[in-house]
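Cont'd.
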Amino acid sequence: MITVDTILYNAIVLTMDDDFRIFEPGAVVIKKDRIVAVGNDDMINNEYDAENRIDCHGKLLMPGFINAHTHVPMTLLRGLADDLRLDVWLNGYMMPVEREFVNPDFVRLGTKLACAEMIRSGVTCFADMYYFEDDVAEATAEVGMRALPGQTVMKYPTPDASSFEEGLELAENFIKKWKDHPLILPTIAPHAPYTCTPEILQSCADIAIKYDVPIQIHVAETALEVESLREETGMPVVPYIKKNGIMDAKVIAAHCVHIDEGEIRSLQHAKAGVAHNPTSNLKLASGFAPIQKMLDLKVNVGIGTDGPASNNDLDMIEEMRLATFIAKVTTSDPTALPARQTLTMATRMGAQALHIDHLTGSLEPGKRADLILIDISPVHNSPRFKRDPNGVYAQVVFASKATDITDVMVNGKWLMRERVLTTIDEEAYLKQGNLLAEKIDKFLISREKSVLSKLIAIGGSMEEESFEIQCKVKVDDIKNIMVALKQESIEIERTRHYHEFDTYFIFEDQEQGTLRYREDEFLDERGQITNVRSRLTLIGQKNEKTPEQSVMLSRSRYIAPATHSLRFYREYFQPKRELEIEKLRKRFLINYKEFDFFVNVDTIIKPDMGHFVEVKSRTWSRQDAVYKSKILSELIEVLGLSPALIVTEDYFHLVDRRN
Amino acid sequence: MITVDTILYNAIVLTMDDDFRIFEPGAVVIKKDRIVAVGNDDMINNEYDAENRIDCHGKLLMPGFINAHTHVPMTLLRGLADDLRLDVWLNGYMMPVEREFVNPDFVRLGTKLACAEMIRSGVTCFADMYYFEDDVAEATAEVGMRALPGQTVMKYPTPDASSFEEGLELAENFIKKWKDHPLILPTIAPHAPYTCTPEILQSCADIAIKYDVPIQIHVAETALEVESLREETGMPVVPYIKKNGIMDAKVIAAHCVHIDEGEIRSLQHAKAGVAHNPTSNLKLASGFAPIQKMLDLKVNVGIGTDGPASNNDLDMIEEMRLATFIAKVTTSDPTALPARQTLTMATRMGAQALHIDHLTGSLEPGKRADLILIDISPVHNSPRFKRDPNGVYAQVVFASKATDITDVMVNGKWLMRERVLTTIDEEAYLKQGNLLAEKIDKFLISREKSVLSKLIAIGGSMEEESFEIQCKVKVDDIKNIMVALKQESIEIERTRHYHEFDTYFIFEDQEQGTLRYREDEFLDERGQITNVRSRLTLIGQKNEKTPEQSVMLSRSRYIAPATHSLRFYREYFQPKRELEIEKLRKRFLINYKEFDFFVNVDTIIKPDMGHFVEVKSRTWSRQDAVYKSKILSELIEVLGLSPALIVTEDYFHLVDRRN
């Protein structure tokens, strides 16, 4: 008799090994951190003895699930914002909150909570990608889970690095520090091709190769990303990252939604692993990854939950279920991705995808003891049929719930026994998480109260508020004014020609002002578009007449370049209603009596409202405004415009009243 | 103060009413079977008093989920067969087992277990469709759940009716019996357009209208169904059922995967409800139902789990989650079907789809007290953000688990308190279910042992085993034999010309025989196909030579018309390997010396093996065989065939040896 530490017996043992051996009743023998033997109860009982013999009561005993792609600290942002488009979700909510709140404490707390949730749902190992991964690693090692934390590098400043050079240094130090840890395999994570320069990609690859650690990267998650990269470089995503050295390292490619057969072959050739994230790809409407094709071409595909802020959980059973469902429906073949193969992706093949199948992923002698017990007796998973040897895999994939996991062991150490976590004070961390959520709530609620602060939250430089005097006159045609501008008292300093498309967002609370999204097409003399500029202007409400009756003093305009699409701003600001104005504008910067004025000769196309001449000037004080408004009134007459036809409202109000 | 029976307070009350009112902390007031009031704790405490005041500890209090389409007794067949194509699953496994096992006891047990599972996952009401629905109703009423059991009617014999007339009578009696029950709303369920005649559809509609009860029907679940109906009748499914009276009743149309905009408008116009079954539609690869379009066009769409044998659970939270995911990805719009709308489909709109929204589906005074409590504090659903009022709906849809449901009340009566079922002895039923599963396992295991019994299990009339003598001769060309057949001693009674495609299934255990799938194209004189026939032949192994050396006595051929596709048989029988033979055959029925013989003049095209002449005759005894084989040998010579070129093997072995 060989004496060992622990014998788990009277289980239905799913080894998930190459031969998919099942032992029932079966046993697993553990010594220190390793599996020593796996077999039928009788065989094991004849050969091994242990003080610690655990009756598994007919539960399933199998390798723990491997979560091949996630962002664990984002557990703290779960449910912060849902049902939004990726850019609104990311740029409008995730990034502003991350800029404000993400620090080592945040990351540690999020990791602990994520570990609690993952252990409860049978995960023994995960590949992470976030900031402050040293803290992710610390927190994970304290818990006792196995992980591949990936230190993010990108061309933008991140919460933990103000430049990519700093990011690279951080990553290299992180890898050096954790390289030989029994649970932690440090990795480097160039975030994505579109957030990294070629130099960053190459440097990350160099570091990964130097230390022989995997490299994690988001690949072809959205169609937009693929299109943009193709426009920019003429290349699809996989050849592009290959060109930049990534494929020379041990790649873990997350998502891979929009890749073609050639790219799949290229991944296979490089022995890259793919992390399939069905929930996230569906919830964010990214698309269906061609998983069946990848499996046919022998790519190692693991399954990941992605971050809990876009999922919204870390439940690998649901993830597996979804993986098999969408494989079936997208291939129109209900026999596609059967339960056993799906479960393999979540265990052994997941380990292969993460380049750690020598350590974990199946119950085989010599591998680390990373295993779970699942109770398949609950009413939602009964009865049990034994005719089909694949039935037991189907029970896990199609009918089990995460809450059926009763026990979890990693590296020979119990992390959960009979649904009680042994290394995490769940209640304490939950409390901390809820306190933090209150702070984040407050931050966002106060931001959301004001259109201006929502505008500031999504970044972009912003002009200070400004004042201007303005006056507008309806004209029948624009010939006369073009002639009038040529008189001697007027010096034309600059002429521009625009085609302007304005969309006004009107809010419930009118005190918030009105937000204008303007797309200007710059036209040359032949009316051809030479450039396009998008600007966002928050127009305050306070308009007042100057003493000079016909001139309006307009105030408070915050102007920012519009870096996102109109659709983004619509979904982010959620206006009560919208109003559209399209006009052709000839814009003259003139000097009259030593003052600069803008003269806009406008033709309102949509709605069809004819021609207007608008005269404007910046101003800095009420006194200045009063003085300038006199000059302006004079200028109106010099230009031959009729003061009787003066309109004091701006276009927005003119059109709004007309509608 | 008004005295009532029960006050539930200190909850987050999601009314799911038209205004989506939320009360936090909120309360619901119950008297007898009804909701009396819903509001903030303060308001309720000021107005109502009850002996039974229940502190909900900040849990969500909301209407119970409505499972809009299921087959509850099939709980007993969960996991029986998975990852199979619909026809293999249905005709190969479900129907043979149902024929053998479904009876009133089966249905009652299955219903009790399904109720246990559904209560545990927060379902308070379900629409069912199966056989023996009187027993479903009895079992459900005993449990105390609300249900719309639908008595199935179809043109084929069912476990509870040997003809459709009997089925209609059963359904009408069932409706009469249960019409006024407080929990049970009986319905009639013409199974599907393709399993019912127009007369059945019309009769079911008449009964539904006569008793003013809903009618349940499967509509356009698969593309095949739609194609077949269009070929047969020239109509899409919805116009077809409309033509046959169905739309004049209160329709509950399950699936509706393959319907177009016109059909959606037609459903809306008839105020038909749709039951959306995302899991089943994905798992069986049926497709994506156009749910967003249905909602845009104001159709009432509920969510159903479908039967647990094709899901494999009755978990409405998973079903909701999948519904929103696939709506997002199929419309490429992550804002599609947001959480609140999805939850509405599972509650109030589900009730509308089932035509019972006057009774249930939201927490409103006057409606029945059908409600649930959900604990949203577990680690997988934390933290909680309050900024977005829709966040709480997202918590239910995106992160809750069925096991978070703690309490369930139907019609004012608790069915679960703190996760303990109050009206079902779950353990006892689980035991019974497992015992039954063992019997079903035995039945199928013994069936699966034998190719013959698998063949018999899928039905179809079968010829008895037969014996024949046969002899085959290789010839260089077929001209000589055609001339030889014209001599006077031979009378040609019939001539046929075939193009034959044979697929042989070879099994591991050769004792099982070989299964041949033959598709015969009948050719006319010009070689045009006039008819096609598919036949399945199980060929026994025992071949023996007769005393007349060159003639083989062949035995045991079970012949059945092949009503399914080659693909079906391949997936159902799972042969170890296959072998294909394609040949052109001229078949002559001749009379020689008072005996009938078949002379087959064959050209083997695939694999290319040249020409053979095969001479055969049926025989009934060894003595007869010996005698006939002498005549046959004589005939061979008369036909000018060389006995030296006689081949005693059949084509299958000839080709197999060659390969």
